[in-house]
Amino acid sequence: MHAMQYALTLPADYDMTVIRDRVARRGHLLDDWEGLGVKTYLIRERGVHGSPVNQYAPFYLWNTVAGMNSFLWGGGFQGIADDFGRPQVRQWTGLTYEEGVAAHSPARVAVLRRQPAADGVPLAEIAEEAVCETGRLAGEDGALLAAAAVDTSRWELVHFSLWEHATPKADGDAYEVLHMSAPGRDRLRT
Question: How distant is the alpha carbon of residue 178 from its chain centre?
Answer without folding.
Answer: 12
